[in-house]
Amino acid sequence: MSYLIRQLQERKRLLEALVSSIEIELQSLPEGSLRLSKKNGATQYYQVTETDGSVTKKYINSSNRALAKELAQKGYDVELIRAIDSELKAIHHVLAQGKILSSDDVFKELGEGRRALVRPYLLDDETYAEMWQRQSFEANPFHPEHLIYPTKRGEKVRSKSESMIADMYYELDVPYLYDVPVSVGKGKVKYVDFVLLHKTTRKIYYHEHLGRLDDPGYRKESMQKLDLYRQNGIYTGKNLILTHETEDSPLNMRVLRKNTMELFGISQITKR
């Protein structure tokens, strides 16, 4: 429901801004309204004005088609404002109710003891993200001694760059799992650096950081891994984020942060 409320608030802001813009446009449009009629299969346009109860109908010839367009636009604008006013009244009515308990909120309203016993069918975004982030999985057994770089969330990762990436996701409140096993077919498993959850759409994204592209062996292994990802529906342009660095080209965190905020619809940092 919180997502619905945010959507309604955003819709309200958009409609109110649109009404203000249309009202300014209406001030520059000609007086009267447009009337159409058919004669010998052709459409004829008339400007209709009313003064002191007297209605005047003036033919608009083809050389003055701009006037017909302006009057048509005026008619559309007026009808649109009426429809927007009606929609805004409905939005105001919903928002005026304050906190609304939706089906998504029922599980959240249960006591902690009951929540531990219940299998929920619907969850609000925050509760869903919290439960998603608490899921368990088999840890990557490859060189656990390399897990030496701390993150703000309290875990250890394998490189300084991965620590910076993890901290960015934490600060932006993007739910993430680190070093997650992903099935790539025929019983094979690869470990992706980060698995991410888009809270509102609940879409899953994968982030692979290629941190040692100077190393030919690492580069070859990484390309093979990406091929396996593609064969299993994980690829850039759909659900895979790729970052890389070399000794001469370090990870650009500024660009990554900007792109992440755009992808996840984040307007400001929520954690420090």
Keywords, please?
single chain, 272 residues, alpha+beta, Trna Endonuclease, Chain: A, domain 1, 2 domains, 4-stranded mixed beta sheet, 3-stranded antiparallel beta sheet, 9 strands
Explain how this protein is built:
- The protein has 272 residues and is of the alpha+beta class.
- It has two domains: 2-95; 135-263, Trna Endonuclease, Chain: A, domain 1 (3-Layer(aba) Sandwich), CATH 3.40.1350.
- It has helices at 2-28, 65-95, 106-109, 112-115, 125-133, 160-171, 216-231, 253-263, and strands at residues 33-39, 42-51, 54-60, 149-150, 156-157, 176-183, 189-197, 204-210, 240-244.
- The strands form three sheets. A four-stranded mixed beta sheet has the order 6-7-8-9, with helices on both faces. A three-stranded antiparallel beta sheet has the order 1-2-3, with helices on one face. Strands 4-5 form a two-stranded antiparallel sheet.
- Strand 6 and strand 7 form a beta hairpin.
- Helix 1 (2-28) runs antiparallel to helix 2 (65-95).
